[in-house]
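Sync notes, pocket subgroup
Present: LS, DG
LS reminded everyone that the earlier model was apo-only. Rerun requested with zinc ion included. Inputs:
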Amino acid sequence: MTIAPEQVPIYWQIGQSIHPCAVVTAMVHGDEFEGFVAALDVWKWVRTVDLQGSLMILPVCNPAAAQAATRHTPTRYDGLNLARTFPGVTGSSYTQQLAHALWNLIRDADALIDLHSGGVGYDYARLAGYYRDTDVDLAACFPKAFLWPVPATPGVLSYEFSRIKGKVSLGWECGGEARLDRAGADDYAIAVKRVLARLGVVARKGGGRVGHSRPRIGRTRRQTCSTAGWFLPELTVGSRIKRGQVIGQWIKPDLRVRELVSRHSGIVIAVRTLPRVEPGDYLVLVGELV
Ligand SMILES: [Zn+2]
């Protein structure tokens, strides 16, 4: 299968390729709406400000997944997770080729901001992910977010951009639950505008202090389920949890109900909010506060 021209995602560019050149990507997962809405906002805004570099925006990186509102590319293409596929290869399956086409578009940028969310299945705390310690100040532009050194995950766009290009790379999370977290989308837009000013892509007005005392997440641990069933959570993202504390109810296929307790202590980073779960799904993601 080859990618038809109309299947290459829409991208917008301003300032041609003048450096510094930043890229904003959204909907690498087709069920994540916060970054998409923020990208539209940033594109409207950037045409009204004093541009000093250039900006490329890709509001819908995976059009096939976006049309289906699914995390992965639909199975009639190849069912792959675009966020495990970068930098992609030519002459392979749809998602591999899509990743390759996207990579070729963004590879010469000086900075990448990849906006994600919890999608249909999860609610996520605000995570201002970054890879290099020197980029903490940029990550801290995201209001009310935990600072998060993103773990190395091959195929993730922000990870591969950081690894291969060695440049500014940010990967952020917020909201989800199969809806638009409007406040999260608004703050994504605010954060992206701040980062663009700090990078010198747009003229900077004033000092724009950022919060250096923001809590930082260290190691994260998933609590997964080994069988199918339904999970009814009794905890919220951003709260503290202790090992042994009740995290919700577990309903087995035979409809027997029991309480589930946390296997970890820390900050609740993500909660499974779509009740139906399959074996191997994670129910809760808990992060160490460092
Ligand atoms: Zn995502």
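DG: The helical segments are 34-46, 63-68, 94-106, 136-139, 157-165, 182-199.
LS: The radius of gyration is 19 Å.
Action: DG to write up.
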